[in-house]
Amino acid sequence: YYIDEAENLFNIVYKNFFDTKKGGFFFASKNSTDLIIKKKELYDGSTPSGNSIMLMNMLKLNSLIDNSLLNDAINKSLQAFEISISNVPSAYSYAIKALMTYLKGTNEIIISGDNESAKQEAFNKLNNMYLGDTIIINLKSNYSYSDRFKIYNSVIDSPLQLFYCKNFACEHPVGSVEELIKLI
């Protein structure tokens, strides 16, 4: 459910704010007619810019779904701000963090199995640990997932299986959070 909702929100933001010619997201809707200047902010001051946050969100979502608009937006956004970031890197700390995520890839933990309470307990344990930008996915047995996640729910005949994945490649599953931490 949340993955579908995130993709829907991305599509809305892309349609209304993305600069399809030069990359990056406008501060106001690109359909606004009463603005003299359509601003695209990247400077990361005490709070990260909307473009930096959106870039990181797109990278995380990209690790979960296959969406050509998403891939296009990531690549064009990185190209749009490449010179600014390289000229004054200290002004774009969160954008650089997103760039590092782009270059090194994402880490995911996929929780699967047929015991919902064991899966929820594992999710709660993992969620209370510092795991950096690792994405934790708790697969529900009654939900229809994209092809990428179907395999984790279909081949497992176990109360709990935890997969540690990096860049779409997963280690063999383990049966406890403690075993999973050893893989990380």
Q: Determine Rg (CA atoms, Å).
A: 19 Å
The helicity comes to 40-55%
Class from secondary-structure proportions: alpha+beta
Number of helices: 7
Poorly predicted segments:
none
Task: Kindly report the average pLDDT value.
Answer: 86
How many distinct beta strands? 4
Measured between the Cα atoms of the first and last residue, the distance is 27 Å
Widest beta sheet: strand line-up:
2-1-3-4
The biggest beta sheet is recorded as:
4 strands, mixed
Order of helices and strands, N to C? Answer: HHHHEHEHEEH
Shape: elongated
Relative strand content: 5-15%
Task: Describe the structure in your own words.
It is elongated and about 60 Å long. The protein is 48% helix and 10% strand. With 184 residues, the chain is an alpha+beta fold. It starts with a helix and ends with a helix. The longest helix is centred in the middle third of the chain and has 20 residues, at 68-87. The protein has helices at 2-17, 50-62, 68-87, 93-104, 116-127, 147-154, 177-183, and strands at residues 107-112, 135-138, 161-166, 169-170. Helix 2 runs parallel beside helix 4. The chain has a four-stranded mixed β-sheet with strand order 2-1-3-4, with helices on one face.
Task: Explain the layout of strands and helices.
Layout lengths: L1 H16 L32 H13 L5 H20 L5 H12 L2 E6 L3 H12 L7 E4 L8 H8 L6 E6 L2 E2 L6 H7 L1
Parallel strand pairs: 1-2
Antiparallel strand pairs: 1-3, 3-4
